[in-house]
Amino acid sequence: MIGVRNVTLAYGKRVLFDEVNINFTKGNCYGVIGANGAGKSTFLKILSGEIDPNKGTVEMTPGERMAVLKQDQFEFDEHTVLNTLMMGHKKLWSVMQERDKIYSLSDFTEEDGIRAGELENEFGEMGGYTAESDAASLLSDLGVEESFHGSLMKEIPSNLKVRVLLAQAIFGNPDILLLDEPTNGLDIETIGWLENFLADYENIVLVVSHDRHFLDAVCTHVADVDRQKIKVFSGNYTFWYESSQLMARQLSDKNKKTEDKRQALIDFIARFSANASKSRQATARKKALEKLTIDQIEPSNRKYPGIIFQPQREVGNQILNVTNLSKSIDGRKLFDKISFSAQKGEKIAFVSRDPLAVTSFFEIINDQQKANGGTFEWGTTITKAYLPVENTQFFKEGLNLIEWLRQYVPANVTDADEPFLRGFLGKMLFSGDDILKNTGVLSGGEKVRCMISRMMLQSPNVVILDQPTNHLDLESIQSFNEGCMIFPGIVLITSHDHTFMQTVANRIIEITPKGTIDRLMAFDEYLEDDRVKALRSEMYS
After folding, report:
1. pTM of the model
2. pLDDT tens digit string along 303-323?
3. 427, 485, 488, 484: which is closest to 453 by C-alpha?
């Protein structure tokens, strides 16, 4: 068990936590959620001892071991990959170091021999004799090939460093596992492996993530950081979100009878309890939901932005034709012979094992890069809005938000006064004096919200989204996702957010060095299709 007692933390007048009391118990995985800046990562640092609260204590069951996903990719640069992983089990690593030091002594004494025997006993009890092979197996499971195991951390690619640090955290099955954004830098297959690993994990896990599919797959509970407090709710993220939305609707419906509202909530809990039986965490999640009472369901205090794209005109019959498009960078072929036509009603998810390939493709069809070969042509009815993965170039001038947005008013809009522009910024939760903020001081999330305001201003019938969830909080991601689902136009998207891809796309196009894999199907269906798997292997060989 790990718990906090009366924890308070403030930075000047800004209070993050005020008298927080909460317990986390064995067998449960807690998804720590909250708006950007609410203190999710800070709370994990308080639990790990990295940050001391102004008041209060953290309590752990004596003898239990905690492991934390490290964020500093350079901390272990001078250590080998295998040793970096094993250093995650601090006690085991300490015993190994002391034991090896004794064995290296030239004047080995009887006292040294006794101590070495004690260490060997501790080493064996901790599984030390299989630790190296277990570590190597774990690295391989996470996609770090054996050829890298003896390399120094500074010699391996950054995307592999992330995997090594994740392996370091989960090595040796710690009693308490703290994971801050563990899916960052992982591909779909590795995220799936981690989901299964955590679903079977029998100890305590606390995880901060903006990946809703991941939270739904692994969490038995949600720990909601809001208004300087933390409340724990049974169920995964989707259960928390839908139940809080339902309760908010119930409270606002003054005409509905109390008993009708109660029955609706009972039916809602029963539906989610039944669905829980399909999960790998069926037992823990179903038991948690069965114990849930209606009084535990509360409306969320969150504010959700209003992301609604309203096309000025419907798309015509010709939308986008791509013919034999190819692109190479520094001799590396990103894609070749890309050909397809977009059709009415389609929302297309683009995937590739090389993320640079999709970004380059999007930049080409938005005239921000040149292809090495091939052509593309947009239809004459198309008005497109593009959300690039990198937006720095849009914020070089120090303007306030109204001035910034005014630059992007379409030529056919003649009455773009301040109230008009405030409306688009207000939908993205910029209100009051927020609109006078200088763009030079905006956070990453605020910049993306500005970019979405700009997109809505265009009244597009085609939206192109390159990693749209980057820097956004769960509330913005949820609203963005729902806005794309109801959008009547065309969506071209690539995203690490599994739920976004699954719920929006009805066609999948994978761009590879040998052409395209093009299927009219949902994202999950694409990932599970055996014929697609075989073709993917061939296209990247």
Report:
1. 0.84
2. 889 999 999 999 999 999 999
3. 427
